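Supplementary Text 2. Reproducibility record for the structural model of the 298-residue chain.

All settings were left at their defaults, and a single model was retained for analysis rather than an ensemble. We include the record here because the model underlies the residue-level annotations in Supplementary Table 4.
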Amino acid sequence: MWFLLSLGAILAWSGSDLFSKIGSKPNDKYSHWKLVMAVGLVMGIHAIVQLCSGVEFSFQDIIVYLPVSALYILSMILGYVGLRYIELSISSPICNSSGAVVVLLCYFILKESIGGWQLLAVILICTGVVGLAVVEKRQSDAIRAARREVANVKYTSSVLAIIFPILYCILDALGTFADAYWLEMFIEETQANMAYEFTFLAMAIFGFIYVVIIKKQKIIIAQEKAKIAAGICETAGQFAYIFAIGANAILAAPAISSYCVFSVLWSRIFLKEKLSRAHYIVISLVLVGIVILGIFDV
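Retained model, structure tokens:
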């Protein structure tokens, strides 16, 4: 059963990446807030269903878990902003490099030991992230424009766009780092997940007030199907992840950690993103590092 759950998490989260990218329009400066609304709505519905089914939960849990929820949600918002400016096949590996940052935080702050394979993974990931920035910087405007012409997408920024997935990576790592402490000291896993979902629902309500009421933007449901699909995939992936890890963490962790490989694959198949050989080399370094971290994170 753990394998099917892991496969479900991989497909759901890589699908969330794909649909989030499809729903992120470079010419829509509110697209990230619309994504927050869609994801928060689906997560809120899931949390309410759990609450109505009798799962023990106190709204005090939302306050207790708020620092961790804030880190995760802020990271996702910045990730959604970044998708307006950069290819998914570049963004996803950077975002999923947060595991390397967690290793560094544990090493320098908690003074935990780090194995040789983990150190190699961190080096590969950091090298790949820096390499992506260098490759983007060195490419001429003509080459970059031709690459994006294939995907039929016009971006307003290039190398600076890498800042958003890097910020996502750092904040997501801080959230994971804090999560370990909060779950050990203050709150149980099920309650933490529901608290996170209710907090995301609150952000969705805030986004609706800001975009629709204050900024007078119209929300046409028929045009937001990709964002709703992203919300469903994100929530389903989180659900499958919890039970897969609980069933067989030693095997599920490395499988799920490599879901961004599928995000890159989907971007090539469905979004027609065409990258240079240099891009594929540095992305491969990041992907190999992520898989190594997953395998030895036991």
